[in-house]
């Protein structure tokens, strides 16, 4: 519509329309009523435990208390998980309105990509992410892409150089055919039907270029170094000498493409975005604070070079899938009424390599579609790392009350300074000394000392008076790589559980620090995550105590014929039916939901438990924060089993010994219980043990893949015989001890 067509009033009206809209999810009333009935059931269970305590001296008194404590914890935890379901909201940005109002006043955006290890995070993966963000539907002179390489590797640097040359072909190709996704690897992996059009021909040509580049990068990786003839072509390689190691090197900053340079153009003559390689200084004796340290160095280095008011952070494995994402995110920051107070906009983290039935339950889809949207409903969306847009001011530690005015449109451009000068200045900012005796890692930037630097930083920002938004776009904005083996998945979960629990005891505990800044319901919502590690204790109790008591014929649950039986069954059945319904609503299959049940038991009894223990150690000063990088490498053998949805155990870690022992314990308990009923009791009084036997039976069903890996499978991913022997011995000893004492 031309400007002439609309009267003055109409123009005004359009410019007053909000840039985004918040809609509440439906059926909230119905859900609240339904949840109340479960709550009544939970209270009845507690009442049953309190009114039926075995008398002193009677068998199973301690077991009874243990069950009561476990049910008390589950009940309270359930309440936390409700607060994320009462106020689920979904956001809708209007990018046309943004263009209409601000097309010539769009702010600059800095995009940070983090990588840490060329072996676990192959450079070809990293540059796919970089290439995917070099061309958004956004003015290229307003985009700057920074790669932080904590691996300090010339191989990654080399890959980035290759990517910068390739981008000159890739961007025009994407533009010409409106190609998406803009990660070449993901794009070429898609099936393309037409074969002889102009598009197809050009695709073949560019695919060849891409594959040649990938080969060069991969053979350098195999060689372990960049070939001499290539090294000669870029002065950047001079930074690497044989003495440089991952944990021991000076700071390196290289502006590979200078977006200010009018000669920095693609093959069509269009401007390219700025592209910067950074490896912050590392010395073995100094802690480097993992991703948080990298992000803080990036914040400073970028402030010297492009200083955009908005920052997007991506992990190296998470490519951009939607070219409009930047515009959509800006709708939130630039909304006239509510945009001012928004510190960050978090997108869900979807994955590209999830199997049909979500083996390992890695897609976290219910968390993304419901729980995080629920916390977002209270204006306190969680910052969960990759896929988050930040307002630079809030990320640099500014309080909301000190913040003035809108996003700056023109970044403070460094027009006069040469690339060399900028690089030298940036190197100082990326050096270790720079942070000494400053507030970086405490009050400024990402917070140090926690293995979920993101969540704790998000809370710190909210506590400074800012609000945040969680936004699920219709077309997925980013796609990443999820773990493909059980071990890697559990190590990742352990890191999360440990870090989340640490927040509970830190000064950023939402209940204390967040008091009056974050709504109570949101505080409870955060606890649903922060309590992952502690919830392992009641779970272990529920997995261990019933089978042990079965062996001795001690009854812990009401009889089938008693009315108390009802609340137990009601809570159990409705809760699980609801979770199944929720999973299916999010698009999961029944089998995926079932995998999730297996994974919940495995995670809670191992990862979360170890996370809890390591937290205690940390509190006692016995250990320090660690960060085990998630491997993004997939070997062919493993990948085949992953595709077939066969769980990959394949090593003999403590974790697998525990999983197998618990599975066997429940099997033995079940057998013992049946024997008790049939032989010892001759079916008399068997009602007393029914519920307990059912619980063991469920545990057995959930553990079927474990038995299979122990006794049936013989591929490389099965459980090694050492684990089989350990767990049989351990479970038998436990049973034997139970029976003789
Ligand atoms: O010393 C380090 C360690 C890690 N990273 C980077 O941090 C990112 C996340 O590491 P990853 O091993 O992939 O961990 P995940 O558990 O998959 O990451 C999730 O959890 C992290 C911690 O909560 C968040 O930072 C991430 O954004 C989120 O995707 C990767 O890009 C790494 O390259 C560094 O830059 N330096
Ligand atoms: Mn990751």
UniProtKB/TrEMBL annotation:
Coiled coil: none annotated. Its main location: Golgi. One of its GO terms (molecular function) is cellulose synthase (UDP-forming) activity. It is a multi-pass membrane protein. Keywords: Cell wall biogenesis/degradation, Glycosyltransferase, Golgi apparatus, Membrane, Transferase, Transmembrane, Transmembrane helix. One of its GO terms (cellular component) is Golgi membrane. SUPFAM superfamilies: Nucleotide-diphospho-sugar transferases. Mn(2+) binds at residues 291, 315. UDP-alpha-D-glucose binds at residues 121, 150. It comes from the Eukaryota. The keyword Ribonucleoprotein does not apply. The active site is at 150, 454. The chain crosses the membrane at residues 30-50, 62-79, 529-551, 563-581, 655-677, 689-707, 719-740. GO terms for biological process: cell wall organization; cellulose biosynthetic process. The keyword Membrane applies. It is found in: Golgi apparatus membrane. Thought to be a Golgi-localized beta-glycan synthase that polymerize the backbones of noncellulosic polysaccharides (hemicelluloses) of plant cell wall. PANTHER family: X-BOX TRANSCRIPTION FACTOR-RELATED. This is Cellulose synthase.
């Amino acid at each position: 519509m031309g400007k002439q067509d609309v009267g003055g009033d109409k123009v005004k009206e359009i410019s007053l329309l909000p840039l985004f809209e918040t809609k509440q999810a439906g059926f909230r009333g119905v859900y609240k009523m339904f949840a109340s009935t479960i709550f009544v059931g939970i209270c009845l269970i507690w009442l049953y435990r309190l009114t039926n305590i075995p008398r002193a001296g009677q068998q199973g008194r301690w077991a009874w208390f243990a069950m009561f404590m476990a049910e008390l914890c589950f009940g309270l935890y359930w309440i936390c998980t409700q607060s994320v379901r009462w106020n689920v909201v979904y956001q809708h940005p209007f990018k046309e309105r943004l263009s209409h109002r601000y097309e010539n006043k769009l702010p600059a955006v800095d995009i940070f990509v983090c990588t840490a290890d060329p072996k676990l995070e192959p450079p070809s993966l990293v540059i796919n992410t970089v290439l995917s963000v070099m061309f958004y539907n956004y003015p290229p002179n307003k985009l700057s892409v920074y790669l932080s390489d904590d691996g300090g590797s010339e191989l990654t640097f080399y890959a980035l150089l290759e990517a910068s040359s390739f981008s000159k072909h890739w961007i025009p190709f994407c533009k010409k055919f409106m190609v998406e996704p803009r990660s070449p690897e993901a794009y070429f992996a898609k099936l393309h039907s037409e074969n002889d059009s102009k598009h197809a021909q050009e695709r073949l040509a560019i695919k060849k270029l891409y594959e040649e580049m990938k080969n060069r990068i991969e053979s350098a990786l195999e060689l372990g170094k960049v070939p001499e003839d290539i090294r000669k072509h870029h002065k950047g390689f001079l930074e690497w000498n044989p003495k440089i190691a991952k944990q021991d090197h000076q700071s390196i900053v290289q502006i590979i493409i200078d977006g200010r340079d009018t000669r920095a153009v693609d093959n069509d003559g269009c401007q390219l975005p700025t592209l910067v390689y950074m490896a912050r200084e590392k010395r073995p004796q100094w802690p480097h604070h993992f991703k948080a340290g990298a992000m803080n160095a990036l914040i400073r280095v970028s402030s010297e070079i492009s200083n955009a008011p908005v920052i997007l952070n991506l992990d190296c494995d998470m490519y951009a899938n939607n070219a409009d994402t930047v515009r959509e995110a800006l709708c939130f920051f630039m909304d006239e009424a509510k945009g001012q107070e928004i510190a960050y906009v978090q997108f869900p983290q979807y994955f590209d390599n999830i199997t049909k039935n979500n083996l390992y339950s890695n897609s976290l889809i219910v968390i993304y579609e419901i729980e995080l949207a629920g916390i977002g409903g209270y204006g306190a969306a969680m910052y969960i790392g990759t896929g988050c847009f930040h307002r630079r001011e809030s990320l640099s530690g500014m309080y909301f009350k000190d913040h003035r005015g809108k996003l700056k449109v023109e970044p403070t451009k460094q027009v006069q300074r040469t690339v060399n000068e900028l690089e030298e200045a940036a190197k100082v900012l990326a050096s270790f000394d720079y942070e000494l005796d400053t507030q970086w890692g405490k009050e400024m930037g990402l917070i140090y000392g926690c293995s979920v630097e993101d969540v704790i930083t998000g809370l710190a920002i909210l506590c400074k008076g800012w609000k945040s938004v969680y936004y699920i776009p219709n077309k997925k904005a980013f796609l990443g790589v999820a773990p493909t083996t059980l071990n890697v998945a559990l190590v990742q979960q352990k890191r999360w559980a440990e870090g989340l629990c640490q927040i509970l005891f830190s000064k950023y505990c939402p209940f204390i620090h967040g008091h009056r800044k974050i709504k109570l319901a949101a505080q409870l919502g955060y606890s649903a995550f922060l309590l992952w590690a502690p919830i392992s204790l009641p779970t272990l109790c529920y997995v261990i105590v019933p089978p042990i008591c079965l062996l001795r014929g001690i009854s812990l649950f009401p009889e089938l014929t008693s009315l108390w039986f009802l609340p137990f069954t009601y809570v159990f059945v409705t809760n699980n039916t609801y979770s199944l319904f929720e999973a299916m609503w999010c698009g999961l299959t029944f089998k995926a939901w079932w995998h999730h049940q297996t994974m919940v038991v495995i995670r809670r009894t191992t990862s979360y438990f170890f996370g809890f223990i390591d937290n205690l150690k940390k509190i006692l000063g016995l250990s320090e924060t660690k960060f085990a990088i998630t491997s993004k490498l997939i070997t062919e053998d493993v990948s085949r089993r992953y595709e077939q949805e066969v769980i990959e155990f394949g090593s003999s870690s403590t974790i697998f010994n525990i999983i197998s022992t618990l599975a066997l314990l429940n099997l033995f308990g079940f057998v013992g219980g049946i024997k008790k009923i049939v032989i010892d009791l001759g079916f008399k009084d068997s009602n007393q043990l029914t519920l307990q036997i059912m619980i063991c039976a469920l545990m057995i069903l959930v553990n079927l893949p474990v038995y299979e890996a122990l006794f049936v499978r013989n591929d490389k991913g099965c459980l090694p015989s050492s684990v089989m022997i350990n767990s049989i011995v351990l479970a038998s000893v436990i049973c034997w001890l139970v029976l003789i004492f």
